Structure formats: C-alpha cells, structure tokens
Amino acid sequence: MASHGRPGAVRKTKKGPTIGTGGHGRKSLEGKGPTPKAEDRPYHKAYKSKELAERAAAKREGGKGAGTGRTRGKAAEEVVTGRNSVVEALRAGIPAKALHVAIRIEMDDRVRESLKMAAERGIPVMETGKPELDRMTDGAVHQGLMLQIPPYEYADALDLADETIERFRRGHIGNAPLFVALDGITDPRNLGAIIRSASAFSSHGVIVPERRSVGVTASAWKTSAGAAVRVPVARVGNLNAALKAFKQKGIFVLGLDGDGDVSLPELSLGRDPICIVVGSEGKGLSRLVRENCDQIVSIPIDSAMESLNASMAVGITLYEVSRQRSA
Fold first, then answer.
1. Sign of dihedral through CA atoms 92, 121, 229, 213?
2. pLDDT higher for 187 or 30?
3. What is the dihedral of CA 228, 239, 317, 321, to 10 degrees?
4. Strand order in the sheet with 78-81
5. What is the dihedral of CA 249, 252, 255, 260, to 10 degrees?
6. CA 324, CA 327: separation in Å to the nearest integer?
7. Percentage of the chain surpassing pLDDT 70?
8. CA gap 76, 55 in Å, rounded
9. What digits encode the pLDDT tens for the residues 210-224?
10. Which of 264, 265, 268, 288 has the most beta carbons within 10 angstroms of its beta carbon?
11. Which residue has the higher pLDDT, 243 or 226?
12. Alpha-carbon distance 246 to 70, whole Å?
C-alpha cells in the first residue's frame, strides 16, 4: 500500500536558490551593523541635546579669530527672551532685527508695549509658532516673546586711533585722544557701565580683546543706557600688540591698579593722548599688559575698602582726566 506521507509535505530534489532569484535572497539576511548610539539617532531625545550643546558651543566661539592688532569682528547674533526682558530691551533702545511673537499669544501690558515700541521704531514683527520659538531660543523660557539682536559692528582699533588723532590735529575735537581698554573684564554690565562713563566724559572709544573678555551683548547695551550708540567699541585679537601700536602713535598707556606708582590726583599725563587700561576685579592687570603700561595709576581710597569695581575705577579716572583737561 502506497504511503502518502504528511499532507502538504514537499520533497526537494536539489539544493540551492530558487530558480529566478539569483541568490539575492541572502542579502535580506545580512546584518546592518551595530546599533547607532542614542545621540546619533535623529528621533532620540539625546540627539536633540547633542545638537543644542553643539549650537551653544558654536555661539561661544562666534566672533573669535586670530590677529595681533587689526581685526574687524562681529559678535554672535543673540536673542532676548521673556516679556520683561524684551520690553526692557526695547525701552533701552537696543538695536533689534525683529520681534517674534507667538501665534495666538495671550496679550498683556508688556506684549502691547513691546508691539507699540516695535512699530514706532520700524522693527519687523513676526508671528512665529511655539516650536519655532523653542528652536530659536534653544529651549529658553520665552513666554511667547523674543527679540532678535543683530551682531554688533566692532570698529578697527588702529583705524579708530588714526582717525581720532587726525581729527584732533585738524581741530575737529577739542580734547586729546582718550581711550579705555579692558583687560579680562567678563561681566557685560561692567562693559555697559564703562561705555556709559566713557560717553559722559568724552572718551573716543573702548577697546576689548577677543579672548577672555566680554563683548557688546544685549546686557551691555542695556546697562550703557544707549551710550553704546555714541561711543565706538573696537575689538582686537591681541590687546598687548594693540597697546604697543597705540604707544607708537604717541598715545600714553596708563594702567589702573591699587599698587600703582602714581596716585590719580598726581597724574601729569591727563592732557596728553592716553589709553586707560583696567583689569578684572580679582586678577587685576595681566603681567604683559602691566609691562606695556607707561604708568601704573592708583586711586586713593579708604583703607577699609579693599578695591573698587572696574567700572567705578574707570569712571573716577575719567572724571579726573576730564577735570584736568577742562582746567
């Protein structure tokens, strides 16, 4: 009796791929390599965190470059976020590229005032979706309001010195060139206050180094109370090289330090072309900057006070120079 075997069973007569496949079926069995790391997978939250970190690092490096004395750099474009911060920035007259307002934003007095000031100043107002605002602010709290600040256009330090000297020689300005240089100042509020004092006492410019120093940020703009419009700020790649170039042009370099060899009331160079250099509160003037100074000037203070804030020291010095010049 013939055996019919299992129902549905098929007896193979030869080995190898099925006719017509050409053996391509084997490719579907090949592995696709190791699983990518979480930070390399576009849809993983670690990927977004990595992108934000890289973007923040790029912003910190923005505007930095090599050089010795001549450089014309730009600060990285920044944003002001939050209703209070935006309305205060607009009140201070900070230059703005655009005002971004969330779609269907809940209106209050701050939003209304921001929209009114933007319209009066001709600042473009753009309705922006919340996801886009989140992306543009790197996840910062924006409350549906963001002000876009254009990069500050820094002057060239040596060109600024040449132009000021030439204007003085031609009698277009009454006082000798007067500059303020910052050595290691990292607080934007200090920079803003120094710019404000420079404007009050007819200084012709503020010099800041590219590295380990603050630039003209929205906070500096606000603290300057609009003086940043009147006083040019120059950025240099190497502060020491710039100071040497200033000295070659006949500008005396005066460093401010508590251990100075000349007391401010006894300063004899106040009527000459000068550049006043101030260091950070903690470290003071760096060694090379100190060596490049023609004089180290100290401000006599009460012994109970250890030191003065950098912006206060500059303000007091500029006042004394202005007093000597007016006398």
1. positive
2. 187
3. -90
4. 78-81, 145-149, 98-102, 125-128
5. 150
6. 5
7. 75
8. 12
9. 888 888 888 888 788
10. 264
11. 243
12. 12
Q: Is 152:74 a contact under the CB 8 Å cutoff?
A: yes
**Rounded to the nearest 10 degrees, what angle do helices 239-248 and 157-169 cross at?**
20
Is 36 in contact with 198 (CB distance < 8 Å)?
Answer: no
Note the pLDDT of residue 72: 41
Distance CA(271)–CA(237), nearest Å, equals: 29
What DSSP assignment string belongs to 168-206?
HHTTSSSS--EEEEEES---HHHHHHHHHHHHHTT--EE
Go through 218-240 and write b for each residue having 16 or more CB atoms within 10 A of its CB, e for each that does not.
Answer: bbbbbbbeebbeebbbbbbbbbb
pLDDT band with cut points at 50, 70 and 90 for residue 141: confident
Q: Which two tokens stand for residue 130?
A: 């919340």
Pairing of strands 252-256, 262-263: unpaired
Per the CB < 8 A criterion, the answer to whether 264 and 320 are in contact is: yes
Q: How confident is the model at residue 74 (pLDDT cuts 50, 70, 90)?
A: very low
